[in-house]
Design a protein that fits this description.
- Helices cover 25% and strands 30% of the residues.
- With 295 residues, it is α+β, with helices and mostly antiparallel strands.
- It has one domain: 4-Layer Sandwich (Deoxyribonuclease I, Chain A).
- Strand 7 (151-156), helix 4 and strand 8 (193-198) form a beta-alpha-beta unit.
- Helix 4 (166-187) packs parallel to helix 5.
- The radius of gyration is 18 Å and the shape is globular.
- It starts with a helix and ends with a strand.
């Protein structure tokens, strides 16, 4: 079943029994999270960032591009080619220390939707060489076509497995989870939202306690987990291994609904698998989820 046919069927099905309320509506929001590996110590290859942008531009030209692209590890100036080539009209940067990109959070949000508000937060706890960056949180609030209330979206890049002291790494990550929870409570509150990023957390390894605490404290649902459990209502791309949607990846998608606004993942894919100079574009794949937003 093609994605277009699948989504058309789902929208037709979801409209059954709908009321004549003029304010009711729905929108399919496409959100991509992508760690582009723009690290300063890696061999510069601006061509791969150019190609990333051109891939997104081709999708924009065909009206199939993500509405939101959250980028992690944009630490080099050459990573700006992603936005330049993709032609997204709006860009928000994450926290930054000083004037050099190498000391920034590496977080970027790209979109053509109207951004009505944004907030930043730096993680004060880190360990080893991961402290060279200004890792943190980027929050944007965007206007969804037809929806009166803007929607909140958040990305983050959390503590990596830096150094040899696993206890200190876990402690830093646990404190970052607490910072993220406080940030969401302060800036989003009870509003529905989507969280997508490189959390360096998996549900099935030694870091699981922090993962469980995050899910519990924020009362969020993992989109990949939902898609795996509900293949009838959430289509998984045929070339995407299901474990890369949840259990074996540090890249995660979460969401939280409200009584007034439902959020349902209906399609998931690991993409950006093209190559540049016979090498992968990044050491991460893109992680894109399509959400059916209904109000």
């Amino acid at each position: 079943m093609t994605t277009t046919v699948f989504l058309t069927f789902l929208l037709m099905f979801s409209s059954l029994g709908a009321t004549s309320d003029a304010v009711a509506g729905e929108y399919i929001l496409k959100v991509m999270s992508y760690n582009i590996a723009g690290l300063p110590y890696k061999k510069p290859n601006g061509g791969r960032f150019t190609k990333m942008g051109k891939i997104l531009k081709t999708r924009r030209d065909s009206s199939s591009a993500p509405d939101i692209v959250f980028i992690q590890e944009a630490f080099m100036s050459k990573t700006k080619r992603v936005q330049k080539q993709s032609k997204f009209t709006s860009r928000k940067n994450g926290p930054k220390r000083g004037f050099l990109d190498v000391f920034s959070s590496g977080l970027i949000g790209l979109t053509d939707l109207q951004i009505t508000n944004s907030n930043l937060q730096t993680y004060k706890n880190c360990h080893s060489w991961d402290c060279q960056a200004t890792k943190g949180i980027l929050h944007i609030r965007v206007k969804i076509p037809g929806l009166d209330i803007p929607l909140d979206l958040i990305t983050t890049h959390m503590q990596a497995n830096a150094g040899s002291n696993e206890q200190k790494v876990s402690a830093a990550r646990a404190l970052q989870v607490k910072t993220l929870a406080n940030f969401v409570n302060d800036n989003v509150g009870e509003r529905p939202y989507i969280l997508a990023g490189d959390l360096n957390l998996k549900p099935n390894d030694s870091k699981k306690p922090s993962y469980d605490i995050l899910v519990k404290d924020l009362e969020i649902t993992n989109a990949g987990e939902v898609c795996i459990a509900n293949p009838i209502t959430c289509e998984i791309d045929t070339k995407t291994p299901v474990d890369e949607l949840w259990t074996s990846t540090n890249d995660q998608h979460f969401y939280k609904q409200s009584p007034e606004l439902s959020i349902t993942p209906i399609y998931a894919i690991r993409n950006m698998t093209e190559r540049s100079e016979d090498k992968t574009l990044s050491d991460h794949k893109g992680f894109e989820v399509h959400y059916l937003i209904k109000w």
